[in-house]
Amino acid sequence: MPAMPASAPVDPASPDAAAPVGLLGSAPAATRADAVTELTRAIAVTSLLGLIVLGLAWELWLAPTGQRTLALKVLPLIIPLAGLLKHRLYTYRWVSLMVWLYFIEGTVRATSGHGPSVPLAWIEVLLCVLLFVACATHVRWRLQQAKHRGPLPADRQEASSR
Question: Rounded to whole angstroms, how far apart are CA atoms 71 and 58?
């Protein structure tokens, strides 16, 4: 078999192409990247849904305040759900900033409240931290993978921009 020049691209489907090995040496890098992306996405979506359910249950049934209008605070949490499910990096970025508003609310209500509101507020704080860590890890991982992957070929750039 003739030797290929160093600058020639190697077809990943060819038997001569070496599969990239991950840090642990067991899984290909692409598989590991998909696993990290899916794990952080699952944690982000689950914690976001948890915040929505907690906010509704808290304000409507468990420890309602006033005329239950504080249940409307969950409406902004519904907006990013579709973006998280569609792997939109921009959504992960702004959710990691927006979640701090709910963190502050949970912290204030946990330290100044009384009765059943206190444990509910600490649950809200925990869910906010989980959501932030998942979003920040997701963004960092995807940017790191894109940096290692290099620029997209022209035909993939056109398809991804649609």
Answer: 8
How many folded domains does the chain comprise? 1
Tokens 């860590």, residue?
A: 133
Is 67 inside any structural domain? yes
Is residue 51 in some structural domain? yes
Q: What pLDDT digit, counting tens, does each position of 72-88 carry?
A: 999 999 999 999 999 89
Give the tens place of pLDDT for each residue, 120-161: 999 999 999 999 999 999 999 999 988 887 776 665 555 555
Burial of 47 (0-12, 13-18, 19+ CB in 10 A): buried
Domain range for 59 is: 29-147
Burial class (CB within 10 angstroms; exposed 0-12, middle 13-18, buried 19+) of 57: middle
DSSP-derived secondary structure for 2-23: PPPPTTSPPPTTSTTSPPPB-T
CA gap 87, 115 in Å, rounded: 39
Rounded to whole angstroms, the maximal C-alpha distance in the chain is 79
Enumerate the β-bridge partners of residue 21.
28
